[in-house]
Each structure stands twice: as structure tokens, then as C-alpha cells.
Design goal:
The structure holds two protein chains of two kinds. Chain A is mainly β. Chain A has no helices and eleven strands. The radius of gyration of chain A is 13 Å and the shape is globular. Chain A starts with a strand and ends with a strand. Classes of the chains: A mainly beta, B mainly beta.
């Protein structure tokens, strides 16, 4: 059981380049999430997918798109990267159980120059 | 003020108890969580408490919830150097979202 996996671990982009961050979970969870973590800001929700086939905006969705490819996979796309998107990105998953715990991946560290 | 607030730093000596505090504004929160983040790693769930509970104990961890004051605390007994990390308080906000505090960096002095 790998839990939540994310690729790549690190990425450097130039302003204006695009990239897709990949996330997969093997816990058969219905819900998946993308967060960004910035120094002194805690974690902020970018997008989430409550179930396969649905996606919704979180607190900071501008500049991002997501795709829930199937129950296991949830990708985050930056169409035209900006320096303000330099951050650590975490994917998480959860099931609607009685404590609804979210389980996190190891993160992707992104630097936009 | 912020939805979930925590002090940013805490320093304790090895073997002492650590108490990390958190306050929140929304009294409708159903679940409250403590996550631990070690350097360069993702967040690991430590424990959670349901809003109808006052206290939860799990080995060296004790969570206290004061609903009247909207105050949550995490006590770590016999703190070890391996407990050095950032600790995040989070509350459930709606059906799917968690709202996180900014994290408390715990430093354990040998």
C-alpha cells in the first residue's frame, strides 16, 4: 500500500511554461484534494474532487486547472506558470467515513523562475 | 482574525511536556485534527477529536477541546528529539474542506 503518491518530487519552470502535477492514491478513496503550502501561510486548498467526475474550486484556484482522471488519479495543471506559483504542492485523499481523515502525499516542490 | 490560529514557535527541553495551542472561530466545526510535518515531508495525521468530546488520549498525546472558548491543545508527554517538527491544527470546514492553521514549529533541545 503506497498511500498517496505524487510526481515529480521537484520541478523548476520558467515563467510561462506549463506543467502537470500527478497524484494517485491506492486507498479506494472517493475524495481528492490539491493544496499549496507557502512559508507562513499554512496550507491552502486549490481544488478538490468530492468524487469521480466532479471537481470544485477551493480557496486559491486562479492559475490552475484540475482533472479527475479516474477514482485513483487527480492531476493539477499550471497552464502558464508564474513566480507566484513557486510553492510546495500537496495532494491528499479521503473517504467519507466517520472521521473523514485526509491522507497526504509527500509533496512536489515547484520553483518558477 | 484568522479562521484557525496557532503560535508559530515552541521550544522545549527533551523529556519535558510540550503543549501546542490552537484557537478557531467557527463553532460549527465537527472534527478537529492535529497533523505533524517533518522537514521535507508531507503531513501525517497524529490524532483527531470530534466536537462532542472534551479530551482524547493516545499514548503520549493528549488532546483537549474547550468548545466554549474554541480552544484546542495538543500535549506531548516526555518530548523527544524525534518530535521536532511543524504541528498543524485543522478543522473541518464544510463537507470536504479542511482549514489549517499556519503551523507551530516545535524545537526540542537535547
Amino acid at each position: 500500500n503506497a498511500g498517496v503518491t505524487q510526481t515529480p518530487k521537484f520541478q523548476v519552470l520558467k515563467t510561462g511554461q506549463s506543467m502537470t502535477l500527478q497524484c494517485a492514491q491506492d486507498m479506494n478513496h472517493n475524495s481528492m484534494y490539491w493544496y499549496r503550502q507557502d512559508p507562513g501561510m499554512g496550507l491552502r486548498l486549490i481544488y478538490y474532487s468530492a468524487s469521480e467526475g466532479t471537481t470544485d474550486k477551493g480557496e486559491v484556484p486562479n492559475g490552475y486547472n484540475v482533472s479527475r482522471l479516474n477514482k485513483r488519479e487527480f492531476s493539477l495543471r499550471l497552464e502558464s506558470a508564474a513566480p507566484s506559483q513557486t510553492s510546495v504542492y500537496f495532494c491528499a485523499s479521503s473517504d467519507l467515513g466517520y472521521q473523514e481523515t485526509q491522507y497526504f502525499g509527500p509533496g512536489t516542490r515547484l520553483l518558477v523562475l | 482574525g484568522e479562521d484557525v490560529e496557532q503560535s508559530l514557535f515552541l521550544s522545549v527541553r527533551e523529556g519535558d511536556s510540550s503543549v501546542i495551542n490552537c484557537t478557531y472561530t467557527d463553532s460549527s466545526s465537527t472534527y478537529l485534527y492535529w497533523y505533524k510535518q517533518e522537514p521535507g515531508a508531507g503531513l501525517q495525521l497524529l490524532t483527531y477529536i470530534f466536537s462532542n468530546m472534551d479530551m482524547k488520549q493516545d499514548q503520549r498525546l493528549t488532546v483537549l477541546l474547550n468548545k466554549k472558548d474554541k480552544h484546542l491543545s495538543l500535549r506531548i508527554a516526555d518530548t523527544q528529539t524525534g518530535d521536532s517538527a511543524i504541528y498543524f491544527c485543522a478543522r473541518r470546514a464544510g463537507s470536504y474542506q479542511l482549514t489549517f492553521g499556519k503551523g507551530t514549529k516545535l524545537s526540542v533541545i537535547p
